[in-house]
Amino acid sequence: MHTDTAKKIILKMNNPMQWMDGTVFSYQINFYNNDGYEDETSFDVDCRQFDWRDELLELWDEFRKENNLPEECFIDVWVTTIDEG
Questions:
Q1: N or C: where does the chain have the smaller number of CB atoms within 10 Å of the terminal CB?
Q2: Cα separation, 79 vs 81, whole angstroms
Q3: CA–CA separation, 23 vs 81, rounded Å?
Q4: CATH code where residue 9 lies
Q5: Based on the structure, what is the number of domains in the chain?
Q6: Domain range for residue 33?
Q7: Which pTM does this prediction carry?
């Protein structure tokens, strides 16, 4: 199950399909690592897919589990364009 904080932040994001259909975005996620310091990672998501939020949450959850991060380590997310369709 996805963390509540991550889910709340990602679900608040505007749907890029409304204004940039066919664009691939890189989502940078800011989180606290196991040492308590801020860290970041990124995931590329094709926004042509209707379920891009679900894909982003799944990628984040898999990353968090692989790195043994606590559930409430998610801080924020921001987006950059990497490929315009």
A1: N
A2: 7
A3: 7
A4: 3.10.20
A5: 1
A6: 4-83
A7: 0.70
Residue 79 backbone dihedrals phi, psi, to 5 degrees? -130, 140
**Triad 4, 5, 11: Cα angle to 5°:** 85
Instruction: Write out the DSSP string of 5-68.
Output: HHHHHHHHS--GGGT-TT-EEEEEEEEE-TTS-EEEEEEEEETTSTTHHHHHHHHHHHHHHHTT
Residue located via tokens 């490929």: 83
Give me the residue label for tokens 């608040």. Answer: 12
- Cβ–Cβ < 8 Å for 72, 5: yes
